[in-house]
Amino acid sequence: MKKYGIIMFSLLLLIPIQIGAEEKIAVTLNQCVDGDTAWFNVNDEKIKTRFLAIDTPESTNKIEAYGKEASEFTCSLLKKAKTIEIEYDPNSEKLDKYQRHLVWVFVDDHLLQEEIIENGLGEVAYLYDNYKYTSILEQAEEIAKQNQVGMWSTEEKDNFYFYLALAIMIVVIIYLIFPKKRKKIQSKIKSTIKKEIKKKIS
Prior knowledge:
There is one protein chain. This protein is of the alpha+beta class. It folds into 2 domains: 21-151, CATH 2.40.50.90; 153-201. Helices cover 49% and strands 20% of the residues. The protein has 6 helices and 8 strands. It has helices at 2-21, 67-80, 112-118, 134-147, 154-177, 182-201; strands spanning 25-34, 37-42, 45-51, 54-55, 84-87, 101-107, 110-111, 123-124. Helix 3 runs parallel beside helix 4 (134-147) and helix 5 (154-177) runs antiparallel to helix 6. The radius of gyration is 24 Å and the shape is elongated. 20% of the residues are buried.
């Protein structure tokens, strides 16, 4: 009985070690898609992943400000990485509605999401629970905003309002030239302004 007791005790000691070893999964890059999406090779399987808890500007179907920069930044880090690891969060679904794996990504032992956020190339988003590294990302985002880097830069905001004002002026001129279409144009102006302001604030 004493012998069996020693064996059981030894097995219990090994359990935490095994769980810890399985938290991060070593992968290799298959294809980089954009700032927050990539395909990885896991053993003999190819999986599409969506980086958990962040959102970067679009650079595929449509081009948004800093979308290209975010994509180039992420792809450069992944392609140059000596080691890439992914980690699933216990408080998150494993797959999203598009069947993409929702994961934390570590490049050479650095959290990729944090690097993207602190360089102003993405924002903290899609938080549906208390995820493991949320506080790290929120802190990185605050620093990026304070330093006005990337998408948080003053220059980017100034450009946005300049082009918005220019667009309004053009529409107003058309509004004056074509009085019969005033109601229709007025409706479009209000709708456009509301959408753009809401997008910028959010």
